[in-house]
Structures are given as structure tokens and as C-alpha cells.
Amino acid sequence: MNNKNKGNRILMLLIIGGGGYIAAQLLRLQCFHIYNIINSDMSSEMVLARQLAEQGKWLLSENWYYSTELRVVNTQLISAFIFRFTDNWQLVRALTAIILYLVCGGAVAFLGKSLNWKCWVIFLCELLMLIPYSWEYLGIVQFGCFYYPHISLMFFALGVFFYSEKKKVCVLYWLLISFLMGLGGLRYLLILHIPAVCAGLSLLIKKREFYDFMIYPTRENIERLLGLNETHYAAVNISGGVMAGVGYIVMEKLLRKRFIFQSFNDLSYLNFGEKGESIFGTFGKVIMGIPEIMGFKYDVRLMSVQGLLNVFILLLVLVILICVSVQIKRVFVGKDSLDSPERNNYTSDFILLQFLFSFLLNLFIFVFAGNYTSRYWILVLIWLIPLLAVFMNGVERASNLFRLCILSIIVYALVNGTVVLNDAIKHNNSTNRYAVNRYLIDQNINVGYSTFWNANVTTEMTNGEIKILPINSESDLVIYKWLTPRDFYYDDRQIDELSFILLSRQEAEQVQDIPLYQNGQIGYMDSSFVVYTFKRDYLESQISY
């Protein structure tokens, strides 16, 4: 065995072994420590899925207050189906996550096959897709599974897009997927379709045939232009963007009449001076969200494992910035040094520009519209994985330096992912909830009230036995119409004579002088929670629906 084959074999074993370890840790978290990082936002997906199963539905529920998007192709497709066979919420969550891991892995493999990636490149992308890079990344992607449907759909869509050159039927699949994406809201347009149209047109405009057509629009030049792969891809991109736009219009004009969800139409430019923020401060906060989502942590010692990881993360961000800048320059003013087929050059250039336009467009919205939290970067930065893949796949003769770079990426990802997973398994953030949940179950009261972050999570942790409606605040007894049933559990509320309000100790300290609570009784109290019990009729007379 020569050194090249030996090195490739070691690299493949490291990828497979690392992937197996991360997968085992994720399964351990999902099966045996499922409540460690759970919250009401995550639990809302389960509550919705359970409701759909009870109604005999699969896709959408009119009896639900959605959040910032209408969940069309999302986790409920899987969870609602599993709920038809079991009432065990833990089992449903674990099986849903496992299925989504497999679906996302299939999406990566499908995209890789459409681009003729080498086997080890596909396996490396599978590994990088499976690893949680930060606590928030774990909660949003691997555990909460919010973004796995989005990532899978985007990768399947891109694979179908690249297949469309050889298989014309894939154009229809691309249009259908684009329409479904549009039904999910503006997110896909901002992350995939608008950037893809810009990337496709940019690569078409830089062709000599396009320049000749613009100067001399003769029949011969038109035929030469139409014969380009770039023209085909640009046309497919534009048609996909149109279909996504049609889906978005259908959602806004038709589905909004039947379903309740927030709209991005309400976004507006921030008045930085009015809020006391500077544009540079906001820009800095948004940019620092990139290393944060990759695992960077504040307030840690420099000479610690996390401190050293912080240094590596910042260096990695710098290297990514330099590499992307160099590649962008190559696309527009230079020549590719790799002796690769034209189609491979196009795909690498396209994915690079698609990432660039997606990054710039979302950066603009994050800064100037104020619609930002660091997790929003995930669906933008996820394009770095296929971008890395097309670059690695184009290297025919790997040097030792190249192998060292790949090894460094794998080691960083595995170490960072291991730290995040071990931390999640070791620390149970729901320990303080078990006792109060047991009290509520023992009291056999079906429905109560609490602020949002104590509502749906209690429903999931009690296996659906205790249903809680969210209120705006402990003192504002108005139902918070966000990720909760529109019928407010009406049938369940009529069963019991008693009802309750669940408060944190901090919230309870703020309500001692409010008349409502003086008419209730403290049924339970510990260091974290207080439960006030009331006659159901009285409490409902005080709650605004």
C-alpha cells in the first residue's frame, strides 16, 4: 500500500469513526437525556404534531397560532405520523430526530451524486452536517430539528437543479420544490432563490457569448448564447424563483385567510438613533454571530479548552474569509488553476456566488431591519459545507498540506462537537421541573396557564397530560397567541372544577399585590416554581382570550 492510499484510508476511517461517535452521542442525548436542553419553543412542534394526529391531519392545522412562518414541509409531517401509532412523546421526539438525520444525510448524498463528488467527500459532508458546533446550533438543528427540514429541502432542490441539465424532468421537480418552499415563507427566497438567480445571471453575464449578443444581437449570436449551459441554468433558476414567488403569494393571499402566522411584510428600516444604537455597533453584533454559532463563547478563560477553541474558531473564520475572497476574485477576474471539466467549474462558481449573495442579502436584512438572532446565520453558513466539498472534490492530487487542512477541519469539528454534546448530556436544565410536573399530574388538573417559556415544555414533559396556555405576562392575563391552539383547549378546560397558574419564583414575587392571586391558593412552591390554584370559573372570568 503506497503512502497516498494509506493516507486516504486513514482519513476515511477518521471520518467514519468520528461520524459514528457523534451519531452515538446524539442518540444518547435523544434517548436518555431528552429533557436536558428542551424548551417551550422546541415543544411547540410536538404539541402541534399531536394536535394534527388527533385531528387526522398531516400538514397544516387551522386550530393553531403559528409563529413567523407557516410550517408546510416541516417536522410535523413525521411527528404527526408517528403519533398515530404511539402516545409516548419521548419516543416520537427521538424517532423524528433519527428520521430527520437520515433524510438530511440522504439530501447530502443526493447533492453529492448530482455533482459527482468523491465518496470520501460525501462522507465528510455527512460528518460536518451531523456535528453540533455550539449549544444553540445543537438546540436548533440536531435536537430541536427546526432547521433539518429546511436544510434537507434546500440540498434536494440544489441537487435536482444540477441534474436538470441531463434530465429535463428534473426541471419540473425543481419548480415543484420551489413552489413548496415559497409556501413556507420568505426564508427560502432570501437564502436560496434570490441568491441563486443572482449567481446564475452573474455567471451568464461574464460569458463572451453574452457580450457578443448584447453588442450584435444576430441570430447566430442568439443561438450561441442559448447553447450555453449557463443560459440553461439561468433560465431554470429564474423559473424556480418565479415559482417560489408564486408559492409565497399563495401563502400570503390565500393561506393567510385560513391560518394565522406572522409576516415578513412588517419589516421596516431601523431608526438607529431613536433606539440609541449605532449602525456600526449593530453590524459588529451581527458579524460576531458567525463565530458564536460556530462555537465561540464569551467570558471564558484564555488558557482553557474553550479558550483555545475560541482562538481556532476565529482563525477558521479568518481563513474562510480569505479563501472565499480569493475564489470570488478567481471567478470574476482570474482563471481556475484546476484542470477540471467546464461543468465542475460552473458548479463550484455557482455555489460560491450563491453563498456570497445569500450572505450579503441576509446581512443587509439583519443589520438594517433588526430581524436578527445569531441562529439565523445557520441556514446561510450551511452553504459553506457544499462549498468546501466542491473545492475538495476538484483537487486531483492531494498534497500533504491539503490533507493537513482537511485533518484540522475534522479535528476541530469533532472536538467542538464533543465538547457541546458532553456539556448537553452532563447538564440537565430541566431538573427543577420534575417535582412541579409531578404535583400537577397528581392533582389531575387538565389545563392551566403560565408565561410562554413554562407552557408547552410542561405539556411535553408530562407526556401531554398537562396542557398549559401561555399568557403575555404574570400580571397581564391575556392569552399569548403564539404556538398554541386557537381553541385554547376548550373541551379539556370544561372537565375540571379547578385550574392553575404556574409561575417561576421570580414571577411570583411580582404578583403578590395583584388581586387575582390573592383570591387563589398556593398549592405548590419550591425554589424554582409556584403554583396558584383557582376555581376554574373564577380564573376564566379573569383571563382574556
From TrEMBL:
<keyword id="KW-1133">Transmembrane helix</keyword>
<feature type="transmembrane region" description="Helical">
    <location>
        <begin position="171"/>
        <end position="204"/>
    </location>
</feature>
<feature type="transmembrane region" description="Helical">
    <location>
        <begin position="233"/>
        <end position="251"/>
    </location>
</feature>
<feature type="transmembrane region" description="Helical">
    <location>
        <begin position="12"/>
        <end position="38"/>
    </location>
</feature>
<feature type="transmembrane region" description="Helical">
    <location>
        <begin position="119"/>
        <end position="135"/>
    </location>
</feature>
<keyword id="KW-0472">Membrane</keyword>
<feature type="transmembrane region" description="Helical">
    <location>
        <begin position="376"/>
        <end position="395"/>
    </location>
</feature>
<feature type="transmembrane region" description="Helical">
    <location>
        <begin position="307"/>
        <end position="328"/>
    </location>
</feature>
<feature type="transmembrane region" description="Helical">
    <location>
        <begin position="348"/>
        <end position="369"/>
    </location>
</feature>
<feature type="transmembrane region" description="Helical">
    <location>
        <begin position="91"/>
        <end position="112"/>
    </location>
</feature>
<feature type="transmembrane region" description="Helical">
    <location>
        <begin position="401"/>
        <end position="421"/>
    </location>
</feature>
<protein>
    <recommendedName>
        <fullName>Glycosyltransferase RgtA/B/C/D-like domain-containing protein</fullName>
    </recommendedName>
</protein>
<feature type="transmembrane region" description="Helical">
    <location>
        <begin position="147"/>
        <end position="164"/>
    </location>
</feature>
<keyword id="KW-0812">Transmembrane</keyword>
